[in-house]
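Inputs:
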Amino acid sequence: MSTETLVELFEHGLDAPICLTWELTYACNLACVHCLSSSGRRDPGELSTGECKAVIDTLERMQVFYVNIGGGEPTVRPDFWELVDYATAHHVGVKFSTNGVRIDEAVARKLAASDYVDVQISLDGATAEVNDAVRGQGSYAMAIRAMEHLAAAGFRGFKISVVVTRQNAGQLDEFKALADRYGAQLRLTRLRPSGRGADVWDELHPTAAQQRQLYDWLCAHGEQVLTGDSFFHLAAYGEALPGLNMCGAGRVVCLIDPVGDVYACPFAIHENFLAGNVRADGGFEAVWRHSALFTELRGPSSGGACGSCQFYDSCRGGCMAAKFFTGLPLDGPDPECVRGFGEQALAERAQAEQALASPARTALPRPGLDHSHRGPVRGQAARPVPVTIGRRPVPAPPDRACDVNPLAGFAAGGAR
Amino acid sequence: MSTDPAGAVLASAATSFDLDRPWQLDERVAVRPEPFGALLYHFGTRRLSFLKDATLLAVVRSLGEHPSARAACAAAGVQPARLPAFERGLGTLAESRMISPRVIAEPGAA
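Outputs:
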């Protein structure tokens, strides 16, 4: 028997991921300001139905117990239900994230009848006012309608998934009450400066005081509230939260994006964290087991600047993606380090930037791909952006065949 | 969610594990070997468990072939001194429904 702890064993990597996120499409009917994958328009290189089924065959062979399907809005893929059925028939459970656009009565009944499908409804405010400011006009009503259908169909324990922000951090009890009302389970996750989240992180990420309140609230609710292990950087406050409390990137988690690219984690869509593509020889299995990037991530890490901190064993330096997209070194503190070292590092970085002439300034790393809608989103009066900063205007690339509304021709069926 | 016929039994088994009755790996549990042991995933409860001990893994996998958990432990070579530790381990797995009580087959039945 090994004397290593489970976390130490997991840091060496597993034969297959425990938690695999698969974003089926970059197409989305919404344009949330903090979208971690900068979704909006479908990518013309999206995996075909046949290619998706081949990925599922691989996952079955590797005994990946379940996949977290997301997007974009995965349910707008015409073959979405076909792929869900194919996965569950091949012993790969499915948990999918949705804004609720396609969860009508009939779909809810079908979902409630399956042990192998779980649903996660995204909601970023316990009130329409707070939610819609981030996710867009009408998105609260859409999510609530989906939850009503699921509850009415007898689906117990579906998830309400909330990204904790400065604006909703004071609504935790209301979120819990909402979950209880619909027989659902609350899931709280961390806002990352990934995708469009980088543009709004400064204004949306919780304050230090809110982080502390969140930690206490999570401790008080224990395993009743899920977190996807995303707040492990808060473990340095004291007692660890339920979960593995480690960065699982390339070790126990990874992301397959809509075009088959495999990244170390869903919050790290950038070439630095790109391990390979499922279309290459050997497919996903070869990427997971042999890619140079994942091998490196599974190697020993020193802790760098954090190594001498007495809390390093608790937080293990925090989130790699959060550091990367805020321009901090990967072996230093998390930008939301509970001891304040991250804030300090960010301030020092900003100061150093100020001292440089503008052409010499190093730009913050940007996500590798941007599928954001370029015009107003249907049904929205204007872009639902409560904030006006943007680190850099995105130049409009030349028009391409894919540059159309991904939902063109899609009848919303009372979804607004 | 499907109903669990063993639910009532497990409610009382939560405090003490019955080594002398037949058990089985729950039919909704998948076992995946890993370099350090194995991962167990229950599709009904959607929970993961980790087994680091190869002997416990062997016991769990063979529960269905033995008339009791005690017999499965003996067959896997568990020494009497270590039996209490296995009893606790199996009790934890029973609480999380990874293993479930097996209905005793009629004599002569397959």
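Remarks. Residues 97 and 117 of chain A are 11 Å apart (CA to CA). The interface with chain B takes residues 1-2, 4, 6, 9, 12, 14-16, 18, 63, 65-66, 91, 93, 95, 115-116, 118, 156-157 of chain A (CB under 8 Å).
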